[in-house]
């Protein structure tokens, strides 16, 4: 790696610069990050103890998964009290200390906002099921239609989206687990309670919200049946529903616009066109997560499957989203999160080319315009785990799928389904953070709530502090992104969209008169064989800024080794 040249002058005026566009976000899953008290469950004091690891990466923002009071049936996404901290994670005083420590390190803290549903243990639901006049319409209740549920909508986790409540003697809607009843956003009192809660947290000086399945809040009037052949039955009546933009506009007007914060929405089935409505220049949010690139390795539309994927399709998705939001919107760039299996096990080679493919995949999200999100352990190249039986799984979705597959009589044992269930389980992202090679990877002195990945002795933070590691490469990528505005504000151009092994693209920052201020070239070999591409007509002079191989200087048109990533500054 050569010395990084000094940053050239750039044409981004101060009034067009935005802190959240220039940030790198690090996601922390509290249950699995660090345990301070030996009970096997990650907690807020543990996060504080390990905070310097995050700060040393050079990231700007921490996104904290839910730490609110919860029965933990879906690991915190079933909230029973929005204004309390779950006792296993600590106290409100612990959380306040975390916020202070984050800010002291010149980072910001974004909280998870889960307002499509609550827990069945929430006081609102308990009062609603008893018919309390003040709360009876806080959720979506329907009387039984004959002997079955009110319509054919399905839960994302499988089965009917309706459960019968013996207390109220009616069905309630839950688009996710039966322990997560959907709030009735048509009720103004619900909206006001949510807005008041958001303002309560913002007044504590947090720096924004990641919003869970936020485009599902509005359900079609009358709750009509859905297409029975749809991948998610009923989705056409609750994804991007008829009043969703009204609800989010009111949220923005009453709460969000009063603060300088980051807002990002998780949005199932998001398209470029709808993303512009949610997160365009006049939209209520700053950016949104889509899932198109996370489905490349599906076999068709089936989530619980494994299929082949090809690089041109990934590049087409990248181009479509960049071009579609270039003038009206902003991209959220990510590979992993708490719901996605480890990317190096999906799109890389965790066995023969672990470091090379992990660093290459990091290069792809950190050298393009948008706001990158790095999930805990991704900077180490953490991989999927091995799951021996159904009991070893904690993910409610994976356990249900395993049970259904075994009950179908098409499979005799868990061994028959281990490959697919183990590959897709959300538990792969939730195995404890690997800090060192001591027992339980240094995560806890007790018994961890979820098994530690067996490769922790080789892949861990302590080992990554030495030598040319994945972590150190991520630090270099983040440094480059800070040094050159082209990686943030530049225009993306795919030079060889049809190449099946190599991705070659530029990020160009221009002055209004067309003069180039900065132009960066990234060339990535997504294969386990040597590959080449002709860039002679594009590149006149190039300085190698960073490579995940041991190189000081090399021209961009030479052969690329397996999973090699190179980043150049073009003259």
From TrEMBL:
Stretches assigned to the Glycosyl hydrolase family 13 catalytic domain = 27-430
Keywords in alphabetical order = Glycosidase, Hydrolase
GO MF annotation list: alpha-amylase activity
Question: What's any GO biological process attached to this entry?
Answer: oligosaccharide catabolic process
Q: Key word Acyltransferase present in the record?
A: no
Which residues fall in a coiled-coil region? Answer: none
Cross-referenced Gene3D superfamilies, in alphabetical order? Glycosidases, Golgi alpha-mannosidase II, Oligo-1,6-glucosidase, Domain 2
UniProt keyword Hydrolase, yes or no: yes
PANTHER family assigned: ALPHA-AMYLASE FAMILY MEMBER (PTHR10357), OLIGO-1,6-GLUCOSIDASE 1 (PTHR10357:SF184)
UniProt record similarity statement: Belongs to the glycosyl hydrolase 13 family.
Q: What is this protein called?
A: Alpha-glucosidase
